[in-house]
Amino acid sequence: MSELDFLRFTAKEFQVEYSSLSFQTEYRNLPSWSSLNALIFISAINDEYGVLVSSTDLSQSKTLGDLFNIIKN
What we know:
The chain is mainly α and 73 residues long. The chain has a single domain (3-72), classed as Orthogonal Bundle (Non-ribosomal Peptide Synthetase Peptidyl Carrier Protein, Chain A), CATH 1.10.1200.10. The protein is built from four helices and no strands. It has helices at 3-14, 35-49, 55-60, 64-72. The termini are close together.
């Protein structure tokens, strides 16, 4: 998984322009962010990357870069 692939994946999941995202983007500030979309996003990460992001991981992360590092490790 590359950084570029992760940003494209995230843009698709949240239906935003890829160019509007960076690793410094605070994903909770995305217009389509909600608790329901958070669960859908966690499920999509599991399907796409085979990594289960826990609610603790999600609550302790702030940016897309933080999430990328959780998934990568």
